[in-house]
Amino acid sequence: MYLNDDCFHSNIACGPNSLDPKLVAELVNVKPSIRKSNATLYVLQCSLAKTDLEWSVERRYSEFRELMLVLHSFFLRRGGGARPQCFGCAWFAQTLRSYWFPRRHLLNSRSPDVINQRRVGLHQFVQILASHTFSAVPKCTACAKNIFPVVRDFFLKGAVLPDNLCLETLETALQADNFSPVSDPSKSKIEFRKARSVWKVLQMEKPVYSKVSEYKHQQQKCRNLQRAVSAPVPLEDGWRIALGACNNVSCEA
Predict the structure, then answer these.
(1) Other beta carbons less than 10 A from residue 70's beta carbon
(2) Which residue spans adopt a coiled-coil conformation according to this UniProt entry (predicted)?
(3) Residue 246 — pLDDT band, cuts 50, 70, 90?
């Protein structure tokens, strides 16, 4: 790996405390359907840590499953959009691989055993969503732009709000950069410190070249450009402008 001499790095460290969710979400109740045409509803109680913002939202099993499919498509499918240079993408992908989502039941989906089994599994799913999306886990521009809004809408769409709270206030509070740093995956890489068991995102502010030939080619282009700019440019009435390397402009007669 070859970097320009004037580049600098900004380290984003991720420790055990980074997984603590700032959005507290719990599956507190289940509303079984009375009619066959109605679906069983799972009630989520949500609150933002260290604030007085609280609300609740009801979701069907199918809505949980739709969100799970979106996450699988982005994080686990090849070419789905997840970036291996992003700690948030890598952590979420690893978590999804080890998580068992409650399966569908076509005939006995309303039985108490199935509902209780789903309640346990979906509660765990909610905890995973909160730990990744609304915590200090570093994210990249890809997952912050594509996944964060989807998960946020899952907790906000159709929410039951108290009288002193409006949806616009929640949407303003639940922004990706309010919870964690967002880095450019094209300028980042992941380092793993085994002794400390800490993932660290090392963000590169300058281009990174994997081959010596690419690095030398870019350096030569910069030198050629500097020579072209530094050459005197004739102007009218015998005046000319000399552009120095320090970008100072001087006029000579």
Answers:
(1) 16
(2) none
(3) very low
